[in-house]
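User: Hey, my collaborator sent me this sequence without any context and asked if I could get a structure. I don't really work with proteins. Can you help?
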Amino acid sequence: MIGLIGIGDMGLPIAGHLVAGGFEVLAYDVNSDRLAAAVVAGTQSASGTPDVAKRANIVVACLPTDDQMADVAEELVAHCDPGLLLVVTGTHSLKFMGQLAERVASAGVRLIDAPVVFGAQGAREGNLLSLCGGRPDDVERARPVLMAYSRGVEHVGPLGAGQLAKTCNNLLHWIHCVANFEALAIAKRYGVDAQRMREVLMKCPGDNGTLRRWDTTRFTWHEKDMDLVIDLAQQAGLVLPLSGHVDQLVKTMTAADVAALLYGSECDYLGRRITVLPPGEGGL
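Assistant: No problem. I've predicted the 3D structure and written it out in structure-token form, which is a compact way to encode the shape of the chain:
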């Protein structure tokens, strides 16, 4: 029995892929409407986290915050048998993962971090990539479950390495968001349609995955992602000036700004209006 805790934008499609993959899934969410949606997708409904702890041998937790993950871990530890494998798919700090490992070890619970990339679209398509940290045997035990909703499972290293890989990926993503905006702002200012320039750049060496999916980027977790980057740099004594600038710049951007850049006649960047230069003033 596979337990699934957290039926949100990621958890619900993951539930469907697990069921389609032939797994018996026991789902739980504090939101009854979300839990009902999981049942419609083919899962069984748990009465609570203790119910999941007692009946599942692998639990996949899709939770967005440290506090939610910690609370679920406490309940699992209090009610599970030794040998339960807890798979953490959310994005958390290395410090938190270390604290979580200490807490669950007392109950004989195995733990891996397996955050995912490619977002909500990847979850809907069952095309996520799971970035794993933990003991090799624990990752291999979880691999068939993870492959039900992933294009691949990458074992990066010991516990926390998956979170580290996710943070590195997120840093590149947000760097690309800023770089893409500034590059296309030049095109727009000089009278070339920004969406057309985007299409051209996707055929050039400057192409990047963010550029290809940019009009679906929701700017939901950019502050949390960059806070984790800056925290890691400070804790390790790293000087990362580009990351510091991106941390500030990306916090000023929204999905609406990107839509205006790509599809509008004008857009804003850092409080300044970007319009097309007339031909007589340097425009094409």
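In plain terms: The first strand starts at residue 2 and ends at 5. You can pass these tokens on to your collaborator as they are.
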